[in-house]
Amino acid sequence: xxxLVESGGGAVQAGDSLRLSCAASGRTFGTYRMGWxxxxxxxxxxxxxxxxxxxxxxxxxDSVKGRFTISRDMTKNTIYLQMNSLKPEDTAIYxxxxxxxxxxxxxxxxxxxxxxxx
Length: 118
Prior knowledge:
Blueprint: E1 2-7, E2 10-13, E3 18-26, E4 31-39, E5 46-52, E6 58-60, E7 68-73, E8 78-83, E9 92-100, E10 105-108, E11 112-117
Parallel strand pairs: 2-11
Antiparallel strand pairs: 1-3, 3-8, 4-5, 4-9, 5-6, 7-8, 9-10, 9-11
């Protein structure tokens, strides 16, 4: 089992910045990929950003490219999402996830609300 705890959400104005954190604990040795998804009520969960745990390669949705940066701290089993130049359309619940290659499955955090007002 892997447990994920997210933090850093909040309510900000358009143009502001936020940094989300996601700390993994438990059986993390099989981690292959971690990342963020977001969801607006009534809509499907959408891809935001991923980082490959061992090599550090990163991937972004076009809608956040150039504004968001995903990073990892392997010593803390933690990933971060630095969100700059936030827009009202970034408002959503942000979920952290990890894909464990050893377990052959994904694990999800509880989600953290990000609200951006214009």
